[in-house]
Amino acid sequence: MRLRFHCQNRIGILRDIVAHFADYGLNVAHGEVGGEHGNAIYLHVPNLLNAQLTTLRPELERVPGVFGVRRVSLMPSERRHLELDALLSSLSDPVMSIDMEGHLVAANRAAGQLLGVRVDEVPGLSLDRYLPDLDLPALIRRNNARVNGLRIRLHDATYLADIAPLHRENLEDVASLAGAVVTLHRADRIGERIYHVQRQESRGFESLFQSSPG
């Protein structure tokens, strides 16, 4: 069961809350802090039953600084993960995340199909297996900034790679680099996309002129 506590952001409040679960022999598997001002605590208590929650709720709401307790369907990190998966799955372009050792961390379905593996087989794969002539971590360190339109060859096709570096703790120096997100665009389809965009724009202008009074 997953719970959300609306509470004060004070030192020791998490310890006071968790102590009540310990008294009932319940293990808290995971906890997260949320809310706009850190005024929410989320706890995942796998073995908590509805009857136990009914008994525990009054005790939990008597903890100083706790204003309310309610069940939630997902932890914040779980929701973000599902939303990100849904977003990436909807993209037709291959998107992958890499670390600074040159290994794949995650990828969307299009990237998995391009690499010839299932999405759950992606983590840990070495980039050298697919791009032996490109040291992507070195390029990321050298630029330490977004790179757009890097031309690469993969499986006898040419792609334009957009590379967005990832930094730890909102820093921007090379030492804080944690990896990058790479999006691949088929070079032979870029012109087709530009054509369609231009056609849509021209149609928009045509309709504008047609609707204007003479």
Task: Note the topology.
Elements: E1 2-7, H1 13-23, E2 30-34, E3 40-44, H2 50-61, E4 66-72, H3 76-90, E5 95-99, E6 104-107, H4 109-115, H5 136-143, E7 147-154, E8 157-167, E9 177-186, H6 187-211
Antiparallel strand pairs: 1-3, 1-4, 2-3, 5-6, 5-9, 7-8, 8-9
The CATH superfamily of the largest domain is PAS domain
How many distinct domains?
2
CATH class of the largest domain: Alpha Beta
Radius of gyration: 25 Å
Unreliable segments of 5+ consecutive residues:
none
CATH domain topology of the largest domain:
Beta-Lactamase
Oligomer: single chain
Key phrases:
single chain, 214 residues, alpha+beta, Alpha-Beta Plaits, Beta-Lactamase, 5-stranded antiparallel sheet, 4-stranded antiparallel sheet, 6 helices
Describe this structure in words.
InterPro entries: ACT-like_dom_sf (IPR045865), ACT_dom (IPR002912), PAS (IPR000014), PAS-like_dom_sf (IPR035965), PAS_fold (IPR013767). One of its GO terms (biological process) is regulation of DNA-templated transcription. Residues 2-74 form the ACT domain. A hairpin with a 5-residue loop joins strand 2 (30-34) and strand 3. It is elongated and about 65 Å long. The chain has six helices and nine strands. The mean pLDDT is 86. The protein is an alpha+beta fold and 214 residues long. The longest helix is centred in the C-terminal third of the chain and has 25 residues, at 187-211. The chain has a five-stranded antiparallel β-sheet with strand order 6-5-9-8-7. 36% of the residues lie in helices and 29% in strands.
